[in-house]
Records
---
Amino acid sequence: MSVSPCALRPLHLAFALDGPIRRARRGREAYDPEHYVRLARLAERGTLDFVTLGDSFARPGPDALAVLARVAPRTGRIGLVPAVTTTHTEPFHVSTAVNTLDWVSRGRAGWTVEVSRSRAEARLFGRRDAAPADALWREAGEAAEVSARLWDSWEDDAEIRDAATGRFVDRGRLHHVDFRGTTFSVRGPSITPRPPQGHPVIVVDATTRAAREVAAAHADVALVRAEDPATAGDARAGLRARARALGRDPDRLRVLASLPVELYCSGDAVGLADLIGDWHADGACDGFHLRPADPQRDLARLVDGTVPVLQHRCLLRRFYPGATLREHLGLPRPANRYAAARKVPS
């Protein structure tokens, strides 16, 4: 009996909500929350795994995480992944903000780890000078690590809400993380309960060497900008090998090829389906992160043109089998490190 391709290796699709659209449209739409709601709902109709929204201290614009927190209650299944810069920001606050997005979205949050390299951006804060990329990404990796520890600092059953005794939490199930990095230290515990997903999904653009090490050590999803399947396949193999060397299960790392797209017509939409199918069949990647020239136009043509072709070819699901972003990606909910350590007999 033959096995459906859908059962062999799922194809993951993600879409960037921002793009190099015309300046007049960018100014009007960048601050309109309904613009992002419409796009996210459209991506959800196409059963995409998640959408991303970029952010940077180098340009004016709304905070990506706050925008997607507004989108969350207006959507039901699509994963929401804002860019969050770890340079010049407090890791404790980053962890809390991403955790809050996971609660608001009922388990659909992730975050793209970013760094800030320029002197102009450093002057906005006035705390320190710009640093080399290696140092910034080392700090970003530590921010990802301490965020995961803070998410674990509340065990899942720490909240007891016992009105009779006036006890809100079981303090025996709250934990100090006592993390000391190269540029910061965090004692913890968090001020918010453990996220619905345990850990919101960590995404890293692993195109550069310094970022690739952080992706191998901490990411659930690594994005790789590649122009051909061979380059993408080599990057995927390298990331999986490095993750294994760091003691991680490489099967818990999803590597997506990050590609620019510009769809003018229905023929482009079918051509994109052909490209996606060919790259996926070659094992070049676990899916695709599409970066549009015009988000509104290209997402509509992706959902109405490319997605049905992929579904017809049994490469893409027709409905969401789960509710959380981790379930979309086929990733397990992480165990709580402190709960596991507490239960180990001495």
---
Amino acid sequence: MDLDVFVSAHRAEWDRLDALLRRRRLTGAEADELVTLYQRTATHLSLIQSSAPDPQLTGRLSQLVARARSAVTGARRASWRDVTRFLTQGFPAAVYRCRHWWIPTALASTALAALLGWWIGAHPDVQSSIAAPDELRELTRPGGQYETYYSSHPAASFAAQVWTNNAQAAAMCLVLGVFLGLPVLWILFQNMLNLGIGIGLMSSAGRLDTFLGLVLPHGLLELTAVFVAAGTGLRLGWTVIDPGPRSRRTALAEEGRAAVGMAIGLALVLFVSGAIEGFVTPSGLPTWARITIGITAEVLFLAYVYVLGGRAARAGDTGDLDAAERSATVPTAA
């Protein structure tokens, strides 16, 4: 492509588009002209980027296309309808679509925690490397630190603290997944190691039932949210390696936007699990009642994902932004 000839041939159209964009009001004919010039300029930008990239010209046309797109689509404000759509379609659809990643992640992580718990519980030498005998007894005895941990602070502040910590862990899984998923595996291992230590120490003291009675009410939903975040992060890391039929840039943009939405949705899920951990786990309810509450919350979340999310995913919802809300994409030159 001869860039000078191309610019000379189309400069008048770009200038005309710029002039129309500067006007406050347009007639019907001018509005139609603006749309036509916007489409042509977007195609021109694509041709220049693919055939004869020029930074200055590309920058100018990119700004022009962005301004024209804003004028054509109009400014849009978020509304309660957007919130409702996100909670009933976007978020559950994103979780549902990622189920082939987070379900294996959950199964493998749970197996790892159980294996670590068995190994620690069956080997006193491993226990002694974790803490001194007196410290271990203080941790595992009736009324010890494992039991008083959940009532060590006022319920509201404890729930807020737990929610913040878990939301940060989930966000890190989602954000750091782009680094081929390696940081996600490390975060998962740390979480499963902590769980495995608790299982091992309490089982060696003959109090595994007490430990599970404290962990299960909030842990089912909490760990599910962590597994969803980890699975999504791993999927994002795999997208870097294999973007599929999409370009790597497009694939990362789409999966990254869905991951951001996932972070918001999981923060709400973790808020519920944090409330259970702060108010239900340390309560005076019998163990069966506390566990029933935890199982109910877990079942409701899974039903939410598989019913609402499955329906939205089958209808084509991916958890990404609507087409009108995404950055402008220009046609690809043939």
